[in-house]
């Protein structure tokens, strides 16, 4: 653990995890996550599958008329998923500007305005092309947010601002301070849009989507990519680094459009078995990271199975304290309490089990045994409930979770036994 290679790895991973722009991207997505979850649940309710003899959709149609009540969910979708690119362009710019101690609100507003400027109009000129406002415009939203904020920071620090006299309210002072930078930035974006129209004859959205976003989404929706994400996440956690946060800024722009496509097709009436994308963020959260990274809810169950009689055993005490939080996928108590971090005994299962569950889950969804994911849930949603909801209300989702948990418990047990023996030996018992 003290080798130069490991030390260098920890140093590099730590730098990546604290890199200003990646942190801004991560925090930008975290900020809009409540809207994403609400939009996802609205579509899930609008298309909730029959439960035995009870058909929720028909029951609601009988009360409010065919489809009338679904307008509510559709409106929520329009205000969340349908404008995801726009929301991201604001939230990332806001967080990046705040990290520089410059006006985050002004940076966010200028970024959002710049994003709208670059969105192409419909062929009849009646309005903006809605497709680019959503997840198809995510990468442009991220790029615009980062570039606009950096330029805004440079202009502010260069004193290209209008200074107001003392006594003027702070809100007015900030507004006028951002005026000149806003004018310069928006003029630059306007010229850029004009050049794109003349020389490329297509929008920057189409260029970025075809060159970057679509290939990355195709790569991300594969088993090898999912295994790499799972492996890196847990390797970082093993060294005490927050793997979920470090890689989150990289995978969110790839996996959000994939679940959005599933949701959109599910909303239009397609079965959850037939939607195209297998690997999404809910796929990992619901079927791999049960109890948190490392599938640690299975680790807790394994501890209770192995150490039944020794009530005061350290492993059992940690498991008892960690179990309530673990049910809601909060696993820092067990990761740092057992510990898993820098514990050689736990390295193999902590990394191997999630990768194995990624494989079993991918096979189950790819072969049609289990429906594919069509909902985004709060990350604290307990297992079993999450398996049911994320697959559009299918008991097969629960079945896959139970299968994965049993498999993970079986894989953890030998290492719990080894760890307990090592603990006794170290104590001289």
Count of the domains: 2
Q: Number of helical runs? A: 19
Q: What assembly state would you assign to the polypeptide chains in this entry? A: single chain
Provide the gyration radius in Å. 25 Å
Please render the helix and strand layout as text.
Blueprint: H1 4-18, H2 20-46, H3 56-64, H4 70-78, H5 84-99, H6 104-118, H7 138-157, H8 170-177, H9 179-200, H10 204-220, H11 223-238, H12 243-267, H13 281-287, H14 296-306, H15 314-326, H16 332-337, H17 344-366, H18 385-390, H19 395-427
Question: Any overview of this molecule?
Answer:
The radius of gyration is 25 Å and the shape is globular. α5 packs antiparallel against α6 (104-118). It has 19 helices and no strands. The two termini are 27 Å apart. By secondary structure, it is mostly helical. One of its GO terms (biological process) is carbohydrate derivative transport. Residues 5-415 form the PTS EIIC type-3 domain. It is found in: Cell membrane.
Task: Give the key terms.
transmembrane, membrane, globular, single chain, 429 residues, mainly alpha
Q: How do you describe this structure in short?
A:
It contains 19 helices and no strands. It is mainly α and 429 residues long.
């Amino acid at each position: 653990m003290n080798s130069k290679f490991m030390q260098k790895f920890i140093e590099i991973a730590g730098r990546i995890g604290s890199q200003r722009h990646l942190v801004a991207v991560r925090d930008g997505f975290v900020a809009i996550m409540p809207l994403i979850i609400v939009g996802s649940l609205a579509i899930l309710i609008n298309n909730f599958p029959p439960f035995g003899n009870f058909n929720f959709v028909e029951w609601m149609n009988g009360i409010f008329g065919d489809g009338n009540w679904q307008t509510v969910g559709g409106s929520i979708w329009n205000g969340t998923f349908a404008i995801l690119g726009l929301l991201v362009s604001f939230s990332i710019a806001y967080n990046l500007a705040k990290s520089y101690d410059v006006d985050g609100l002004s940076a966010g507003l200028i970024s959002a305005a710049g994003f709208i400027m670059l969105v192409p109009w419909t062929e009849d000129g009646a309005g903006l092309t809605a497709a680019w406002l959503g997840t198809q415009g995510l990468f442009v939203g991220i790029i615009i947010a980062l570039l606009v904020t950096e330029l805004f920071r440079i202009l502010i620090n260069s004193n290209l601002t209008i200074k107001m006299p003392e006594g003027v309210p702070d809100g007015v002072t900030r507004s006028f301070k951002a005026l000149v930078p806003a004018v310069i930035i928006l003029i630059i974006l306007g010229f850029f849009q004009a050049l794109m129209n003349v020389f490329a004859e297509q929008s920057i959205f189409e260029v970025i989507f075809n060159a970057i976003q679509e290939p990355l989404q195709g790569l991300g929706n594969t088993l090898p990519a999912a295994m790499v994400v799972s492996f890196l996440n847990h390797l970082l956690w093993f060294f005490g680094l927050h793997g979920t946060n470090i890689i989150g800024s990289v995978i969110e722009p790839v996996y959000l459009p994939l679940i959005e496509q599933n949701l959109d097709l599910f909303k239009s009436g397609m079965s959850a078995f037939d939607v195209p994308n297998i690997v999404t963020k809910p796929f990992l959260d619901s079927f791999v990271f049960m109890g948190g990274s490392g599938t640690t809810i299975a680790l807790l169950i394994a501890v209770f199975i192995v150490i039944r009689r020794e009530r005061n055993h350290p492993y059992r005490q940690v498991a008892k304290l960690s179990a309530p939080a673990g049910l809601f996928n909060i696993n820092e108590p067990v990761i740092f309490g057992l510990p898993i971090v820098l514990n050689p005994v736990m390295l193999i299962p902590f990394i191997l089990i999630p990768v194995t569950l990624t494989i079993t889950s991918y096979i189950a969804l790819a072969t049609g045994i289990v429906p594919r994911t069509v909902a985004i849930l709060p990350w604290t949603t307990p297992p079993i409930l999450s398996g049911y909801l994320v697959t559009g209300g299918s008991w097969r989702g629960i079945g896959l979770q139970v299968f994965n948990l049993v498999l993970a418990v079986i894989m953890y047990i030998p290492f719990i036994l080894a760890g307990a023996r090592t603990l006794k030996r170290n104590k001289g018992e």
